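Reopening this one. Same input as before:
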Amino acid sequence: MTRLIFLGPPGAGKGTQAKSLADNLNIPHISTGDILRQALKDQTTLGIKAQGYMDRGELVPDKLVEDMVAERLGQPDTNSGWILDGFPRTVSQADFLNKLLQKLEQGGEKVVNLEVPDDVVVARLLERGRKDDTEEVIRRRLEVYRTETAPLIDYYRKRKQLLSVNGNQSPEEVTTELETAIGS
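Same output, byte for byte:
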């Protein structure tokens, strides 16, 4: 039973690795972005609520994201395992997820932290060449990530759930190291 949470800075390759691993293991890759897009598309109650915030240019509140994650993890295709990408982002979200997984009887999750140095992340994101990705903006996003998400790394390390993987190598090498780390 594979249940994985992916952590790592923007540009670390989380999405790419999570998706390819999920395909190989034939389990859902659940990214909060995808959940949100799907809820908006299906016009679910939560999707309509989220739309309101987004239309006003506001962030979707934690509570709403948590409800969406709870709804998604309650679906039958998650029984055989899952990979969560982009959630939790904070220790309070991790506490929420912990309680949810106990309730759903889906424990035993491992947390993969893709470690990539800031300079490498900046270079990767600048290569993507998105309009809003200036070096200044990217460094700011990294700062926010380190402030919000770094405590999560300690949280999961203390709980003996953390697997660290060197994300600063070729995608194939990262995949190999990942598979070794999770023992698949």
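So the earlier flakiness isn't reproducible anymore. For the record, The beta strands are 2-7, 29-31, 81-85, 110-115, 162-166.
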